[in-house]
Amino acid sequence: MRTHRKIVGLVICFAILLLFIVTLPFFEAIELKFLNLFYSLRGKEKSARDIVIIEIDKTAKRSDIAFLISNLKEAKAVGLIFPLSYPESMEEDLILSAFIKEAGNVYLACEFFLPYSEYQEGLSVLHPQEVERLTSFSLQNLPRDLSIPQAISIEAPMSLFLSVASGIGHTNLFPDVNGMISKLPLVIDYGGYFYPSLSLSLSGKDIREFFPVPSARMWINFSGENFISYSMAEFIKKNPSVSGKIVLVGKSTKLLPTPYGLKTSLAIQADAINNIIKGNFFFPVPFRLTAILLLLFGFIIGWTALSTSIRQGGIITLFFCFSWLIFSFSLFYWGIWLNAISIVLAALTNFLFCLGFKAFLEEREKNMIKDMFGRYVSPHLVDEILKDREFLVRKKRKEITIVFADISNFSQLVEEKEPEDVFLLLNNFFDEMTEIISKFGGNIDKFIGDGIMFLFGDIQDIEDRAERGILCSIAMQKKTIELKEKWKIPISLKIGIAEGSVVIGCLGSLKRANYTVLGKNVNLAKSLQGACPPCSILISERTYHLVKEKFYGIVFEIELKDQQKILAYEIPWR
Questions:
Q1: Which one, of 224, 233, 326, lies nearest residue 271 by Cα?
Q2: How far is it, in rounded angstroms, from Cα 494 to Cα 515?
Q3: Model confidence over 302-360: pLDDT tens digits?
């Protein structure tokens, strides 16, 4: 229970950590790339026919623009998107001012500079009269919980033009972390007064009744299609009807990156106006809801990874991510922008993290099992059990090499020494023998009093198992001689080796069983060990035929317990 609580707590903590990570600019940049992908999948939409763009060239004088405005009297609103913050000539300025006043539908552009812009001082020093006129265009009674950008300076039209304009609006656009334009500020705070964007002013919407986003930034839903546009000369020549239409007049010298490629600031403003009029702007899901979804799905995916197999967890996670992207695109199609990729990346990251944590837990469990059972069963057997939990349940027949080794004069040692000393001696002796057996790839089946039964090829397939069994036995005999001289104790080994088919599996009751092998070849190896002289190695006839090219054997005829006589071979090792 405690382990489960720790796992749940860890998954929750990591999901919370992801919540903060996905707010980093790197994730925002990835999110915007997917926004562009969604635009591509959706395709282009028809642009509004009631918005007209008129492009003027650099050589156009203010008197030329005044003549153009005279042709736009029937328009719903006309936005002049170019700076009128500096004088040109007294005559030109007066002409333009008079025509703006006569038209009664002209809105002028201004630009604000924020604290992080390259301008740190005001570009325009406004006279009190200009400030009064400028503030008359500000918005009142805005919601208090809005996050409105604050400007430190402004490039505003001259008072001559401010006094006759129907309104003003800023043309600021906010680039994303990747430099692409995807949103604009609907309102900017300057000196405690709130000024609308030009797109909002031209749309005629009252912000006190209509305010789409609580952050005061509108995500532009780009149409992708071009709006009706003319050059100034072309418009004057054709003189098309603009009755009831919104007309944008400006220079198209500056191109800005958008999801549909480079667009002029005029086209971007047109898209924004179209969004506000039709109400088809993108409505971003509040971050609080995104955070809840991220935590929820992060926990679900994390728990799935921990409680299922890698394959099942991977399939579930990929299915979730794919479904979430389809769901996000469906919302995008209907004008709702959900942080699709952030949640997908969070889910994948949480899945991988939990897989790593699961692998850590399993490795720790394996090490614990090895530590607990490594002294009682072969390390090879422990490894096989950890790989395949059904290994002990299955029984199989296999060709292996069986070896029995026994201390020849153990009874004498028991009579001469105290039991505690005998235990210590046997443990030390078996430590040495176990190391040798492991070195040659053998698997200890059991310790039988003063003897050892070990196998070659029962768990792992070993082609030279018989050869290994003999080499291991020779090494054990040599080690026994060393221990005999070191401990000053008269001990010697008798070793019997047999090769053949046996049945491998667990033997015992439902509550307790031992891994072992059964068959006549096991009995044969035991019989060979019993008939073996001290300090000798006796192998079966079949074993000798497998190794006769590498080992010399002295043939013996021995009699088994059932009085059956067989041939055996002694391997000289000294």
A1: 224
A2: 24
A3: 777 767 777 777 787 788 878 877 887 777 777 777 777 767 777 777 777 777 767 77
Token pair 């009874």: residue: 411
Residue 465 token pair: 């198992």
Q: Is 204 left (phi over 0), alpha (psi -120 to 50) or beta?
A: left
Specify the pTM: 0.56
In the structure encoding, which two tokens stand for residue 21, read together? 């990570």
Give the tens place of pLDDT for each residue, 12-28: 555 555 555 555 555 66
Determine how many CB atoms are found less than 10 A away from the CB of residue 156. Answer: 28
User: Binning pLDDT at 50, 70 and 90, where does residue 52 land?
Assistant: very high
Residue 480: name the closest of 574, 377, 554 by CA. Answer: 574
SS (H, E, C) 425-492: HHHHHHHHHHHHHHHCCCEEEEEECCEEEEEECCCCCCCCHHHHHHHHHHHHHHHHHHHHHHHCCCCC
CB neighbourhood size of 369 (10 A): 14
**Greatest Cα pair distance in the chain:** 137
pLDDT in tens, 74-120: 899 999 988 888 888 889 999 999 999 999 999 999 988 887 655 44
Sign, Cα dihedral of 526, 532, 535, 536:
negative
Name 433's Cβ contacts closer than 8 Å, sequence gap at least 6: 405, 452, 476, 479
d(CA 337, CA 329): 8
- 305, 348 contact by CB (below 8 A): no
As a 3-state breakdown, the chain gives helix, strand, coil percent values, each rounded to 5, of 45, 25, 30
